[in-house]
Fold:
Amino acid sequence: MFTDSHCHLDFPGLVEQLPDILSRMKAAQVSRALCISVQLEDFPNVLALAENHDNLWATAGVHPDYEDITEPTVEKLLQLANHPRVIGIGETGLDYFRLKGDLEWQRERFRVHLRAANACKKPVIVHTRAAGDDTLRILEEENVQGCGGVIHCFTETLDFARKALDLGMYLSFSGIVSFKNAADLREVARFAPLDRILIETDSPYLAPVPHRGKTNEPSFVPHVAKVIAMEKAISIEEVGIQTSSNFDKLFGLDQTEDAAA
Structure:
């Protein structure tokens, strides 16, 4: 029923207990998860998860927080994306919260990912923090409509949400939407059309209530769905089914084929 659209199962603390994590996913009706690349050096580990498990998928990309590592090129990203288990480009984007100074390199890296995404026609997974205006500007300048994409772990304003939706983006909500101090974010969840929403854990980070403070994992994503269901006054089943359908549409998957895999 549920799809975790963004997690890091190759990270320490999760990869060592992968069989148990997959078992708990099944028990929680979380049928699939997308494993996200954050640097080229670790991409083989992310891809191996997707190659070895039919219900896991992978992306190719370099996170904006990582400095002094192998810088991606459009050609390299296209090479990595040319694999049937790689369904997206990223995560990429801008982060002016953690890093300061001249961040033009970060903006250029973001553009490289968007150009690769447009070239291979696979959606882009966008991280943005304290950089909303530049994120929207670059998405528009690099024609994100050509590839599609998602603002992952959405924490921006209602105005940002409107503009991102106008660009054709999906909004993905994480455990943050369940936090007591996240009333503004829940307002965005009420506003966003159900057919443009994804849900995620961003495991191992940001575990939702009632697991806040614990190591997050995909089996917790129904708690995110529960909050969205409450805000929209619909059933959690409807949220699970619709967000999984949205995942299929964005990433070009056939759910019938997925189930048979």
Notes: The two ends are 16 Å apart (CA to CA). The beta strands are 2-7, 30-35, 56-60, 86-95, 124-129, 149-151, 170-173, 197-199. The first strand starts at residue 2 and ends at 7.
